[in-house]
């Protein structure tokens, strides 16, 4: 998740402030001034290259399929919450904020998990990821069928 955020922030610095904006108003100006350097250093530290970002986006369907399977098995999003719920839900909620990623996630059980634990995840992040990265999502079908009532043919 961090690499996807950083790859997006490298393309549009406002993404950084949208995700990591400081709560204290007096800290926002210094943060705006330093965001370019922070993005560059954080990108280097997390190996947030275009290559890695593209790989991370391409791997999303498989990772989300695994999370959906854990939900189906009752390991996540159960009556009793666990540490994994609290670790995964905020990351999925952050993915759902991306205008270019949300359509590929919002129908999944993982999205329900995110909305349960993070009902107000913040303002949307406009589409900033390269079209080729998103095209790879469209080309990789989920193994998790969409949830909803079964449709009977007549």
What ranges have pLDDT less than 50 throughout 5 or more consecutive residues? 146-154
Order of helices and strands: HHHHHHH
Q: Quick one: biggest sheet? A: none
Tertiary shape? globular
- Could you say which structural class the secondary elements and strand pairing correspond to? mainly alpha
| Rg result | 17 Å
Structural description of this entry:
- There is one protein chain.
- With 154 residues, the protein is mainly alpha-helical.
- It has one domain.
- It has helices at residues 2-11, 13-20, 25-45, 50-72, 83-97, 109-117, 131-139.
- It is globular.
- Residues 146-154 have low confidence and may be disordered.
Task: Note the topology.
Blueprint: H1 2-11, H2 13-20, H3 25-45, H4 50-72, H5 83-97, H6 109-117, H7 131-139
Helix pairs in contact: 1-2, 1-3, 4-7, 5-6
Kindly list the characteristics that best describe this protein.
mainly alpha; single chain; about 150 residues
Gist of the model:
By secondary structure, the protein is mainly α.
């Amino acid at each position: 998740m961090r690499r996807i955020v950083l790859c997006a922030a490298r393309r549009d610095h406002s993404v950084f402030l949208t995700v990591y904006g400081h709560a204290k108003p007096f800290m926002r100006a210094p943060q705006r001034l330093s965001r370019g350097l922070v993005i560059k250093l954080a990108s280097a530290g997390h190996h947030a290259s275009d290559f890695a970002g593209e790989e991370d986006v391409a791997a999303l369907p498989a990772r989300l399929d695994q999370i959906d399977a854990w939900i189906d098995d009752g390991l996540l999003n159960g009556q009793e919450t666990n540490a994994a719920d609290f670790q995964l839900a905020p990351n999925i909620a952050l993915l759902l904020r991306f205008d270019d990623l949300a359509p590929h996630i919002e129908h999944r059980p993982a999205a329900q998990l995110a909305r349960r634990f993070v009902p107000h995840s913040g303002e949307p992040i406009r589409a900033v990821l390269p079209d080729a990265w998103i095209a790879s999502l469209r080309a990789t079908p989920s193994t998790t069928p969409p949830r909803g009532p079964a449709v009977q043919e007549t």
